Amino acid sequence: MFTTSVHDPQKLPAPGAPEIAFAGRSNAGKSSAINTLAGRRRLAFVSKTPGRTQLINFFDLAGRAFLVDLPGYGYAGVPHEVRDHWKELVGTYIADRSSLAAVVVVMDVRHPLTELDLTLLQWLRDAGRRAHVLLTKADKLSRQAQQTTLARVRRELAEIFPGATVQLFSSLKRDGVDEAASALSALAAGKNKAPAKGE
Ligand code: GDP
């Protein structure tokens, strides 16, 4: 299932099936979400060294779509050159990749919409990309607190990124898996189009 890893944005594989890319702050639960949604354990290689995973990993979903694991961001103490490389790698991919169908932005439900999340959302919006937000580790909050956060994030997204969708998710409890799976297939099929630039 694992196909290829890319370090140099000029060396991405030729565009093919639609790609759903996953991005998020390091430790937000991105690898766990990919593993849960791809129905495999330990699909993504989890780097134990913060900031070391500066690769774009492609996972082939039976030839129908690729799940693309973008390197995480926001680790304190990461050297400047690693941050610059992240910006170049992810920025280029988001701006230029013709087969990119949508980006899933993974956020810890307890710390949503950090400054770097907002920067990423701005890139996505400016590139005319579609975005789906997963508020992960929902199991860490009470049902009521989950709903309060969901409503707040939805309200903020409506202002900064109209058209972006958001849901609660827990890899641990497998909550929100069906909702995320249908969002992903709709996005891979090109539904839920984002508004065109300037709309
Ligand atoms: P990544 O750095 O964004 O890829 O994050 P990981 O998927 O490696 O997860 C970071 C930590 O959060 C790990 O210790 C996971 O076990 C934990 N984690 C991930 N998803 C969940 C979840 O849904 N619920 C809980 N309680 N913990 C989670």
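qc> The longest strand covers residues 100-108.
qc> done
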